[in-house]
Amino acid sequence: MKKRFTKIICVIAGLIAALGITLTAGCSGYYDRKPLAADDGANVVSNGGFAVATDGYVYFINGVESNTADNTFGSPVKGAIYRIAGDKFKAHDYSSAECVVPLVAYSADYDAGLFIYGGYIYYATPSTDKSAAGQVQNDKLVLKRTSLDGSKTVKGGFAEFASTSVKYRFTEIDGTVYLMYVAEKETMFDEGEDKGVTNLHSVKIDKDGKATDTLLAYNVESVVFDKTDKTNPRAYYTMKVRDYSRDTDYEYNQIYTVRADATEDKFKDTDFSVIEGWNTDEEKGDVDRYINCGDLVFDGIGKVNVLSGDVATPFNYDPTGATVNELSLTYALSSYEGGSLFYTKSAKLPTSTTNASLYSVKDSEISAQDWNPVTGNKLHGYIIIDGSAADKYTYIFDADGGLDKVIIAESDGGIYVNKVEQGKMHGVDDKGSDGYYPIVKSGDCKVLFIDDGYLYYSAGGDSGYNFWRVDPTGAADDYGVMPEEDEYDRFRPVQILDLTGVSDWYKPELIKGQLIFASNTYSSYVTVFDLTVRGGTEVMDNADINALNKKYDSIIKHIDTFGDTEKYDEKIYANVVGALKYAYYTGESADVYLDKLAKECNDEALKADEDADLIYTEETLAEYAKFLAPAADNEWKDYTDKVQVNGKDVYANRRDYYFSLLGEMSEKDAEDYLNAFKSENLKPMPEKVSWYNGLSKVEKVFFVLGMCLIGLGVIAAVVVPVTLTLVRKRRGTNLQRKRRIKVDTTDDKNIDVYSDDN
Fold first, then answer.
1. 8 A C-beta contact, residue 153 and residue 30
2. DSSP single-letter state for residue 165
3. Residues 241, 260: contact at Cβ < 8 Å?
4. Global pTM?
5. Closest to 624 in 3D by CA, of 568, 676, 567, 559
6. Using one digit for the tens of pLDDT, what is the confidence trace for 150-186?
7. Beta strand pairing status for 436-440 and 415-419?
């Protein structure tokens, strides 16, 4: 009976989870896995990104993987959650990374990655449940957690969603972890007909993994979480106000804010019966409902007029309608960051709608006791002329949290700084002035992030992110006429090598002085570039990056000089360019592959023709050896600088000196990765042929004739004796038959067969 009761509870919990509510860990237990070294999870950095650091470790998603990949626990390598010890990370021992969660970490919401709270790492992963037809339901998303030592991963998870693109955040308040998420087109009530609306939820997660869901707001328009601080428990959302008498929405809307730990519906005691048209009778169709745990920030209700038909309701700031705006206002949420909400506001005029301008309001303002959601429309907010382009704005705040500058990636190319003065940005007419000036003058730019005073951005390109850097805090004159070629300061943009990151994934992270991103260079696995001076500890300035660029760019050019046939005879230095490029890209030494390749290729060539040219000459292998060990007296004297990577000295003429793979490739991906460089730069390994196929045509003819003769001989040696034996046996049998007495046993009355005379 007890087992049956537990099974029923688990089924019910699973059904609730299918609606995006909760599923408790107690019903499914944990995956059993040997624990790694302990990590107390102290001082988390970059929480919510695809790479997150604690004092002891850097945790990261090990490459870009799809939700349709095999997600059987223990199978994934690519897309699984790995970690590397902080001291190993600093020492560039990138191959020492270890798997913490052998599941694919995946979400189509690339603003939510890995979160670390209270000794656990929280993440999303595709469902491994199967449908009644036996198909894996990987179009669903399961929210799980795993202990930082990897030993405890809940099998079932504590929340499940029908879509992989669900918008969510994990946050922590007073030691308790909450999951906030937006459920789109959700149907969750039994009474009446619920056609599906967008709702905002919060899930309280106990220390034992039990999850309790709270509906924070029912039927919201849009929701924004904090863009820069992904652990912020506050969210903002807009809601329409319904005119139930006409079965339509009013033309204005409202802005609310709520925290993850809210539990009380602010309208639970409201007498909805006073609302004309409100329906609570299931037999009459849809049941009307209103649930909202948030606080009203702005109310867009305007004066009653023929056009808007606005009427005060229990949902307005002033239900009597005494405090309203001059005109009906419509809000659209733009961004929430730096403790400020940025939003557009447009007014409905008798004949048209005004252009939406961008405003902002601080958290501290709306939390004040005297805050008024109606009069606040006039008294608060920075007005920004063009609110339609706000998706390309990046905000810089002063020490007091006030808006100082706005970085604008212009649609026509380049990046501009628009200084905020007296609470306002500069308008289009001021473009080119000291208050609105360019800091990057070309390229279709996309801002990536700001760190340590530098703006990192991508400039053009179709193969993903590239990486540029400039200091955006200078005055207009600092970005004037460009200096000489090698004169770089903070205000002159510089590209970081030729790094490219996967653009349709999480944005890059800068952790402990190292740039971490997923790159097509390593088959969408994670790549790391150390921004500190090679062999040192100080972070490179733009002049250092430029110098590194020059050295990096010169290597392939130097290798290509061996293709100059006037200087290097191609028979003497056979295939040297490809061999050097292979070493540069893969980091392999000659004894790993090239020695074997050279011997087999050369043996094959000489076997066909003893006077044939060698495929890889001794001179080629000698140059290869010099490349592997640059010295003051050889061709590679300009590349004698070296750093430790994965426990080995790597010289400045190897690509790993500049950037490296972080983590682990699957066995197949690693093989494919090396084979790509082999096929591009090296002669193919001779095919293994049978000894027969290795014979000449004449040899094959004689071999066939010989085998035929031998075959005939074998047949003669075996068949003839056997035949003779059989013949002898047959003859012997016939003789015996002739010598036998033939007895006639037929009944003949004239013969007495019993007589002694017969």
1. yes
2. T
3. no
4. 0.85
5. 559
6. 999 988 888 899 889 999 999 999 999 999 999 988 8
7. antiparallel
